[in-house]
């Protein structure tokens, strides 16, 4: 089996994912994913596509993560893994789609507007 590559994005995080047959080793930026992501919740997010498709421990993942924060990076990686699994076997698509793993989350930070302290917050109004 050749290497399957895919892309996942979330907020400003970008994950380039390379999937190939192996023993279930997930390497992110040349580090193990359990070392890269500090919490068990983020470990679950990364493993979710494998658990839903019952492929835990069958594929090795090499990923390059860039931009964003830890949660955005974990969710970008999840999307990248899900897309790579669908490229490998289109039968996985309905399962992953039903659980919301095939959709890129479009929510981004709203820009700060001029004359305001933040995106929507206004300076305190003074009548006099």
What's the arrangement of secondary structure elements?
Layout: E1 4-10, E2 13-21, E3 26-28, E4 31-32, H1 33-36, H2 40-53, E5 59-66, H3 70-88, H4 93-98
Parallel strand pairs: 3-5
Antiparallel strand pairs: 1-2, 2-5, 3-4
Helix pairs in contact: 2-3
Q: Features of this protein?
A:
alpha+beta, five-stranded mixed beta sheet, elongated, Ribosomal Protein S5, domain 2, 4 helices, single chain, 34% helix, 128 residues
What does this protein structure show overall?
By secondary structure, this protein is of the alpha+beta class. The protein has a single domain, classed as Ribosomal Protein S5, domain 2 (2-Layer Sandwich). 34% of the residues lie in helices and 23% in strands. The chain has helices spanning 33-36, 40-53, 70-88, 93-98; strands at 4-10, 13-21, 26-28, 31-32, 59-66. Strands 1-2-5-3-4 form a 5-stranded mixed β-sheet. A hairpin with a 2-residue loop joins strand 3 (26-28) and strand 4. Helix 2 (40-53) runs parallel beside helix 3. The longest helix is centred in the middle third of the chain and has 19 residues, at 70-88. The protein is elongated, with a radius of gyration of 18 Å.
């Amino acid at each position: 089996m050749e290497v399957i590559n895919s892309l996942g994005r979330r907020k400003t995080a970008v994950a380039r994912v390379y999937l190939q047959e192996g023993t279930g080793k997930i390497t992110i930026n040349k580090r193990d994913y359990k070392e890269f992501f500090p919490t068990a919740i983020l470990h679950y997010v990364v493993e979710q596509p494998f658990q839903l498709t019952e492929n835990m421990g069958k594929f090795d993942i090499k990923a390059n993560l860039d931009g964003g924060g830890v949660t955005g990076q974990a969710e970008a990686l999840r999307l990248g893994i899900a897309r790579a699994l669908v490229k490998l076997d289109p039968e996985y698509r309905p399962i992953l789609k039903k659980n919301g793993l095939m959709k890129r989350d479009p929510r981004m930070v709203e820009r700060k507007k001029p004359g305001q302290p933040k995106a929507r917050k206004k300076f305190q109004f003074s009548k006099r």
